[in-house]
Amino acid sequence: MTNKTFRVSGRVIEQATRQGVAGLRVEAWDKDLIIDDLLGSAVTEADGTFHLSFDESYFRELFLDRRPDLYFNIYNQNELIKSTENSVRWNVEEQESEVVVELETVPPLVLKEGDLRGNMISLFEDLQSDERLREAFIQNPTKLITTKIVKKQLPPQKESETNRLLFSLLANERVLEWLDNYNQSSADNPVNKKQFAQDFAKAITELDDGNITLSLIRNAALGYGIPGLTDVAEQLIINNAAGQAVATPVAQPSTSDQSTRSSQNFNGIGFGNLGQIDPSFIRATIEQLISYAEELKQVGRLADLNSQIR
Asked: Taking the model in full, what pTM does it have?
């Protein structure tokens, strides 16, 4: 019996001009009650069009005879700029489907250093007075950090995988010791993003922690990398494939990039004087995060990529 091939063609356009947008990554997802499934991805062409195809045998294995409930995530580099999750194409049955995704022309969010510092202080002040918020922070730190400090909403899977990487790092005492020593050694001579990324990647390969390596590979495979250091995961994969425990240099960002992801701004991002936050509370919060990370490691959830950590 010949398997049918399901094809999804579409176009990503700018809402105001109705012009296609090239060079964006389009991910097709199946909406599920527990864990959403990635069906495939494509890059938009010069006129904004994209094409995806899925074999029926894949559907049968993944969906057990039901048709997928499709939605699309649109990325500019590694930044999610549009999701149609709230307007799912329910129970797609046609062998060929077409979709148009419109992008609103919204100016990019740019936060100044003072905004980041103020948002962070505000979050920790709220954590000190709200027990339920503290519990939510321990279970899902990425969500509160991104929504409260950076003022961005991450897709669920990126949120989960970022948490997995964070907890994998926190559950390794040698990594924490390396970070502490690195912070002290660079206190008088701050390093830039490129140097830190190279040092961090080399340290991770030498520490040889399976949970961390697995999480880095997972993030890189999904195009996420590490927030603020998105090149590191890809560099580690290159090294692992070559059988080397040496970090290759991370590509230098464009000098025209004046965002906080730019290497020339890496040293300048700090949270300043946190005098209004009780140091003992900060220490207690970190200890709770480490304790939860160790708990996840003990029950095997850090290595179980089918489980969501959020």
From this structure: 0.57
